[in-house]
Amino acid sequence: VLETLRSLGEKAPHRYVSLLAAASELETLDQETSRYIYGALQQLKDRLSNAERCWPLVEAVRAYSNLLRKHLGHIWGRWEETVADVCELYNKVRGCSTAATPESNLSAQRLFSTVAGAHVLAVALERDELTPLVQRYCGLGDLERETEAVRNVLDDAAAHLDELRKIIESDEDFAAWVTVRDVTSNAGKVVEDLRSGFTHVLARYKLNHAIDEKGELDAGKLEEAAKEFEKSAEINRKLKLWRNYLAARDLALRASVLAAKSWKELLERAEGFRELWREAEEYSQPTAKYLDSGLYTRRVSGLLGVLLQQGGGGEVTERAAVVAGLRPAGLRGYSAYA
Known about the structure:
Blueprint: H1 6-11, H2 13-24, H3 31-50, H4 55-70, H5 79-94, H6 108-126, H7 131-138, H8 143-159, H9 161-170, H10 172-181, H11 187-208, H12 219-239, H13 242-258, H14 263-270, H15 272-282, H16 288-291, H17 295-307, H18 312-324
Helix pairs in contact: 2-3, 2-4, 3-4, 4-5, 4-6, 5-6, 5-7, 6-7, 6-8, 6-11, 8-11, 9-10, 11-12, 12-13, 13-14, 13-15, 17-18
């Protein structure tokens, strides 16, 4: 499809880059397709940078971010160059000039900068090997502070839907971007989906770094990760994105079980998997792969089996393996971020 529509890149590069960004979301891309997307972005980035529109730059940042997060092995040898390119585009997004709405601190420019920031931060949070490069080329400081700033703007936008509608009415660039992300032009839905995805990325970061200076699991960080997954799950429940909802709930429960301080508490928390299974059955139509071949039952059994192993470092190693393990097949491809 991308090859067939290649001429679109010459006639309407802003439309073609949105297609590249959408394609880059797929986890099943092969190396040839990933490299095609990379090459197309390289050819388009200068034209996009010189155009008056801001939203295509945001979409290009999204596409580069997905390549770095999901298909890093396919662009081996080009990591630093790709990070430099995405940060160059990110800085151009931050320089876009649009007027702020008088009633609040929201504006198309601020939202564009925040969305692009969420995409570059996702790379830094998910790919430890790229974190120093992202911080250097994108000019990012403390990741926690940068992350909190992005979350605050997304939360503010979600709480002021009337302001989002006013921005759409007054800013053609922002309106075009919303339509690209959602065919119904529902800005609230677009923002909520971004909130959920970014919260999920942050939760996975906390989960993957829930180890203290002694090399042991940090129960406090695991609890924080569980809360973040629950927030993401709740947003997806409201959006009726059931596969994403179940994915976030699954990881919230796993983090919560790992943080248990006693076997009694562990077993009590593990009961949540029964409820999650009932919910998975309720939404069996959109989550058929999740239920297929008893994958879910095997994952829960495997988790509890590991936790039954006693003893110091070995227990930590086994628990960490569970945290980093493969997710059930039906829950891969989480929204725009997993």
